[in-house]
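We emphasize that the prediction below concerns an isolated chain of 339 residues; any contacts that depend on oligomerization or on bound cofactors are therefore not represented. The input was used exactly as deposited, without trimming of termini.
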Amino acid sequence: MTAPRSTTTAPAPDPVPPASVRPAAAPADTPAAARRPALDWRIRFGALSLIWGFSFLLIKVGTEGYAPFQVTLGRLLSGTAVLAVAMVVRRERLPRTARTWGHLAVAAFFLNALPFSLFAYAETTIPSTLAGICNATSPLWGMALSLVALSEDRPTRRRVAGLGLGFLGVLTVLGAWQGFSGLDFSGTAMALLASLSYPVGWIYVRRTLAGSGSSTLALTGSQLFLGTVQIAVVTPLFTAAPDGFPLLPTLAVVALGALGTGLAVLMQYGLVQEIGPTTAQMVTYFIPVIATAAGVAVLGEQLSWNTPVGALIVLAGAALTQSRARTRRPAPRPGPSQP
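Result of the prediction step, given as a token string:
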């Protein structure tokens, strides 16, 4: 998503970590009251939804001029540059222990390098609309994994119903009753695997980096840097240098990193501090709607009835997995008076 996307989070077009996999304690950052934003939170909430919703369109445009690993590398470079500037302005200190850097390297793989690359490869064969909807399954994967990996999470009827409803929505999007005809299995599988990678990373972060002592911004900036290094090592091994730098794909990749991977993270931190993680998490449910609208309106992608219907079912299931049943307060009993 990312407490604010966490102790570190995936600064990308992906949802805020589900409540079940957020770190137990986030580092203490500057209180929101000390930095009153100039823009109303509703405006920033809408802008964040648009940025992350359009990210799938930008990935699609980027892959028209560059190899998927190159799109990911450019994205991470731009995003890291934005957070590096923010860290300098705020005088943030980098993590100091080798243990923290080691855990950040693992987090960078699952929250940045792997999912960013998978989405880029997926969109070479599937529409950006489908990629955006697959991304909305992250809360479902997170809920399923947390029931296994986090002992404090207990399955409830509401959560189990949400999981079942969400995956029914996935089958609707994919047209299961038609035998998945016309579906690109490899691209869809990569998009779903990318969505699964995020909660794996969130759970790892919760287990290893909560209470590390560094600020959220410092941890996330360091995480993005490590993700950039990982992709920089891999890219030359699997891709050839581009013949040129086509204008539109280049602008798309830079915008994807600077806006969707850098600026969006800063905006989200501010929202979480101001309105809390529960309300900020609602941005998750706008991303696939905007991604679908952008893909159809701008890229001219085809949309059959089962895609939006299935997406709504997925979002309803994700919302159920994150909601909690109201607990009734017991009626007061007469007893000894308290001083």
